[in-house]
Specification:
This protein is mainly alpha-helical and 107 residues long. The protein has helices at 15-25, 29-35, 38-50, 55-59, 93-99; strands spanning 68-71, 88-91. The protein is built from 5 helices and 2 strands; from the N terminus they run ααααββα.
Length: 107
């Protein structure tokens, strides 16, 4: 089955372009440094290896691979526990987005 090609106007930025722009202009530089630190990258890799399924989906009875490590207590509030495994949870992109929407339980 063929898919219908979709036209995207040139003035609409790509996802990668939007992400780069967000990091450049709006993301806190301190937070950005943390997420690129060797300690965080190593802990993130370890956490996903030991908790490969989305914790929220698992509670709902679904087996979905986690791709994001979420801080239960945000960095700005709990910077001193940002590298503690107990403050982390494995989530799929969908559950993480749901947490960070307006009115979501994560805000």
């Amino acid at each position: 089955m063929k898919t219908v090609p979709q036209h995207k106007p040139a003035w609409i930025p790509s996802t990668a372009q939007r992400h780069r722009e967000y990091q450049r202009t709006r993301q806190d530089k301190e937070v950005q440094r943390f997420y690129w630190s060797a300690a965080w990258l190593k802990l993130r890799r370890y956490h996903l290896a030991h908790n490969p399924l989305c914790e929220h989906c698992k509670i709902a009875g679904h087996l979905v691979r986690a791709t994001i490590v979420h801080h239960r207590i945000p960095l700005k509030i709990g910077a001193n526990i940002s590298l503690h495994d107990e403050n982390l949870e494995s989530l799929c992109k969908s559950c993480h987005s749901r947490l960070h929407t307006v009115g979501g339980e994560g805000l």
